[in-house]
Amino acid sequence: MSILSLLIPVTLVMGLVGLASFFWSLRNGQYEDLEGDAERILYDEDDRPLPSRTYKSPKEPTP
Amino acid sequence: MMSSLTATERSRAFMITMTVLLGGLVMAAVGHGDPIGMQGWVVILFTAVVGVVLLKSFDAPDPVEDRSASYYDDPTRVGIIIALIWAVIGMGVGLWVASMLAWPNLRFDAAWSSFGRVRPVHTSGVIFGFGGNALIATSFHIMQRTSRARMPNQVLPWFVLIGFNLFCVIAASGYLMGITQSKEYAEPEWYADLWLVVVWVAYFILYMRTLARRNEPHIYVANWYYLAFILVVAVLHIVNNLAIPASLTGAKSYSAFAGVQDAMTQWWYGHNAVAFFLTSGFLGMLYYFLPKRAGRPIYSYRLSILSFWGIVFFYIWAGSHHLHYTALPHWVQTLGMTFSVMLLVPSWASAGNALMTLNGAWHKVRDDATLRFMMVAAVFYGLSTFEGSFMAIRPVNGLSHYTDWTVGHVHAGAMGWVALISFGSIYALTPVLWRREAMYSWKAVELHFWLALSGTVIYVFAMWNSGIIQGLMWRTYGETGTLKYSFLESMIAMHPYYVARALGGLLFLAGACVGLWNVLMTVRHMPRHAPERDYPTSSEATEPAVPAAE
Amino acid sequence: MTLVDGDAAEQLMSPLQQGAARRSLRTARDGGAICLLSVPDIRCGGCVSKIERALNARDDVASARVNLSLKRVQITPSGSRADPALFIAALDRLGFAASAADDATATPDPTGNGLLRATAVAGFGAMNIMLLSVAVWSGALGTTRDAFHLLSAMIAVPVVLYAGQPFFSSAWSALRVRRVNMDVPITLAVLLATVLSLAELLQGGEQLFFDAAVTLLFFLLGGRYLDQMMRERASSAINGLARLAPSGAMVRRPDGALAYVELEEVKPGDRLVVSAGEYVPVDAQVSEGSTDLDRSLITGEPLPVLASPGDMIEAGTLNLTGSVEAVALRPAAESFLAQMIRMQSEAERNRGTYERIANRAARLYAPVVHLMALLTFLSWLWTTDGDWQQALFVAISVLIITCPCALGLAVPVAHVVAAGRLMRMGVLMKDGAGIERLANIDAAVFDKTGTLTTGRPRLEPVIADVADLSAARGLAIRSSHPAAKAIAADLVAEPAAVVEQVQEVPGYGIEGRIDGRRARLGRGDWVAEIAGEPASSPTDPAFAFAGGAPIGFEVTETLRDGVHDTFDAFSRGGLDLVILSGDSRERVMHLSHDLVLTDICAGMKPADKVSYLENMRHEGRRPLMVGDGLNDAGALAAAHVSMAPSSASDAGRTAADFVFLRKGLDAVAATHRVACRTAAVVRQNFTLAICYNCIAIPLAVAGLVTPLIAALAMSASSILVIGNSLRLSASPEKLRHGTRRRRLKKAAT
Ligand code: HEM
Ligand code: HEM
């Protein structure tokens, strides 16, 4: 199955991209408040974009 | 609609359109005498229509609205209407194909109307035309809402949407002319494939740029599902369509791979198309619209993230179950089988997560047909993935392969899951997008629900029966050790089921027509809604799915 | 304290509260300021959006974000002059009590993320190696197989080196002090499997254990991550509970000005101002003014005591009614509160090290396995006439197959599931050791005030004129004295009368004018001064209009719900039951008259409680201590295992192994039940793991273990163990239903 020498590397690279994006999301603090994030999509009092604010990632504070 | 573009944007859009039209002209000129020439005319016609629409509002004054204060919804609006139009076309053709199998005279004896040419019009029409447009439209909505940010650009979404539809039109018209690569779900030829790559890259860029602009730090899980859909489909599409055109002035091309290698690539693609086109993106839809409509957060957000990674990793190698008992090495088949069976775990985790979210809101499911669409879709998702894992076991596949059982499985997934979740999402979305109080007729939604459900059930049961009978008849031996039934006899035995399937398809198609009508009437006749929302607001909306102790 | 209308709240926020609020400020990495507030009352998405919308609409807020899991608000103020007190006041107006977030929760624990990263890497490796292995097992041959083997190695080696670190480092630190823990055999198995497979690979061998090594890591890391997450969640939930201890004091400067001073900087001789509603910051002597003090968390006295000039007041007592000035006697580090905390850590140290079940198992297990591998090696060497390569291969496969994958999961998974279950019942568990200890207690010791009782007295029914009752309630709602609160709460049927010229006299009661008539609510003798006749009792609360007939109120302590159920359940389980109280014997006896007890001790000082428990432990007993007060902190730490209600003092909550958020005491019995079932499941898990080994080891010793068998057997036993543990949450015996049914049964008999 010589074709696998193409398909397997392609898959591995995709897997690595996945792993890298998981690492990114972890470092970015994406999983810090899963409960709250599940709730957030439910608010829809005002269906409009937020004025762009500069959010700080919640991980940053150093006491 | 185009008047929401500024003059520069309009002229940029016009230039792009004209460039594509020029490409069509080149195809028409160099491809004279080859089907590619005809395809060139299709491109010219399509872009000309787009150009005229643009020109009609070319001199309109620049919009004055404050763009930072609203989402850009025009492409979404157009997208869901196009999706519904494709639904009617694709399912209409599906009904024709189904009827043709029951009453072969419906073949009409023309070259373009042969089964082999019309069938891919059905499959591409529903998967790419209906499913693809529904995915693109809802993704535009979801990425903006969950990022709480407007898209970065006004031309790019139109390019993606219209460009994708150009691909669909080239594909469908090409099939009728007899143009095909003979790879299922990847039938379009090289020029269409190249065009799709351009569109898809633009889509990916648009998505990433919107996420980069987000005002909400968290990226909601639906976006991950959509991103996986976009990214993986791009890679699959490119690898599977590696082909060398016989000539640059002709439509025909030859695959870069030969024999069983090509088959392996095709089903590596084919099954991942199921995974990332027909599953991942629609799960994104489910994870957004179901909680939203039910007014309660997803049962376990953690599980939704976990099953995302499970699906991404397990699906990749499941494809070889399409090639059981073929020239494919035995161990590659076993590999596909193993991973297909393991795939059941993340699949059921997703279906269970969706149903558990509704646990405690069953009264809403009872009263709200839109929510019921989504609930039933989740049930069918669980059903078809269980069935799929079962069929992937080699001996089972020995019975099911080549029979209508596969077709039954396909439509349990395609009608029961893909179409129902799309309809549910569209009903949830329409009033929000057009700022309407509600759908024009809730009775019509109810009617659509029952038509779709009964259509699916009739279709799937007919195919299960016919498939198993077929499979058994083909492997029944007489006393002398010869096959007991001729192929013709098995065909005759199928007839009643094919009639039943056509009936089921008719009901399902009727439902889709009702849906299109209802959406159009909502846009035209429903009063505008002042506080712009369409979701239940009862106080329990904020209660957690599982009441905490005390 | 009178009711404050919204807009005035900011001005009325006391300087002390403003000073404390400043503790919430931290510097972000980019140098800007952020404010972290702990808001325990955030419950759902509705609260989140309400808070975020309100805060984000403010001019002095650049952005505000709520963390629902940690119940915390992070605010990035706009402009340089941020005043956190304003944010707290704004939250207060929305109905959310907020305080400066604890430092401990401010930065999430980095080990959690590290474990998650390792788990992800191991998962990635496991998936891909599994893919290649399935291909090899199902018949890929020749160059394909060699290529797949090479690829597996290329994935496995970095994955093992990265993801194995948590185990390697833990094993290494155990070995350095000449001990073994569970991680020693795990490390050995993983490393040997990898090295052996590499060696085989170089020789073109067929038997590679890469998949076994990496899958093993994945499973174990998963279990460990869950364990970590559970502990983090519980500790953040506990830290999220409102802090009771004061963080600073208001000091009157010689020039008469008031200034906020951090607690550590308060010196003896400083003149402190303690307003109503504040905690006393350091031990002090009242110099001016008088007030009622709630000392229930300090001494266990349920009803407030009067403090007037000359009286000593201890740090940690709550000032209820009046504002007083007091002279600090000792610095904070020597205050009563600090003494209690020292006593607690002392007791903790004396408690001795408890060895976790998993480590006890490892101590037995590791030598057996290693010996077995050695014997296998020797006997193969002998039977194969010195084919040491073959012998080594078999010996190592013994090590791999006996690798305590299931054993490593047996305990943490059960504990994680149990913790999740407890959390749903409203009980927070700090770590797995607590639940192991709770399962084998033989006595239960309870504090009285705040533990057996609700801390909120109840009003016995009164019969009187509606007008009088509504007048009494009108006065009662203006006071924060517990008796007044009970009257206000239990007379809900009466509308509160409008009261003017309210005046609270600490130690006596509250006075005002209703419809122009003078009225008093307070001590009987004080009320009798204006009434026409004496009240029924001079000390019990009473109410009267000037010249009218006084109405006596009887206020009694109330037992928490579920006290009887808990005591029944424990005495049926053969546990000794003890009450240790700092309160008077009379009140303890009154409360416990219908409880079956082994021992009742009243008037206990904090040190008495500690020595009581230490004596029990010396006798070899394993007591559970349930208490809430500051005076219980030492005892909680000295006990075998301990629980505290969420209303407990900060020190009490820190000392306890479990904190229950429910109102009823039945949480204690329920937690005990869960602990016993968890212990049973852990035992079953060990049995399963041992059974697995009984089957696997002979195969391995006989040299019959192929990598396929190793990987399958290990995954199967792990999944079995996980599945068995999940049973702990699968049958949620509804707590409340349980008790109700029992009560019905009791009523029937
Ligand atoms: C009105 C409803 C529909 C009807 C009547 C219908 C009918 C058919 C028929 C007759 C076939 C050919 C089966 C054969 O070759 O034996 C077919 C194939 C197919 N249809 Fe549909 N269909 C409907 C809806 C849909 C929808 C909504 C989808 C997807 C979203 C879908 C996806 C497919 C696919 C993927 C195949 C190819 C199956 C295979 O190759 O095994 N269909 N359909
Ligand atoms: C766990 C998930 C699933 C597994 C393991 C699975 C497995 C299978 C198997 C074994 C076949 C038959 C292959 C053959 O005999 O030729 C098949 C066909 C198919 N399945 Fe699934 N399936 C799954 C989920 C789905 C879902 C959710 C859809 C959604 C629409 C879907 C769409 C299809 C299609 C379109 C085909 C027909 C392919 C063809 O044209 O031959 N599958 N699947």
Automatic annotation (TrEMBL), chain A:
UniProt KW keywords: Membrane, Transmembrane, Transmembrane helix
UniProt protein name: Cbb3-type cytochrome oxidase assembly protein CcoS
NCBIfam families: ccoS (TIGR00847)
Start and end residues of each stretch annotated as Disordered: 42-63
Organism: Paracoccus rhizosphaerae
Gene from which this protein is expressed: ccoS
TM annotation in the entry: 6-26
Xref: InterPro entries: Cyt_oxidase_maturation_cbb3
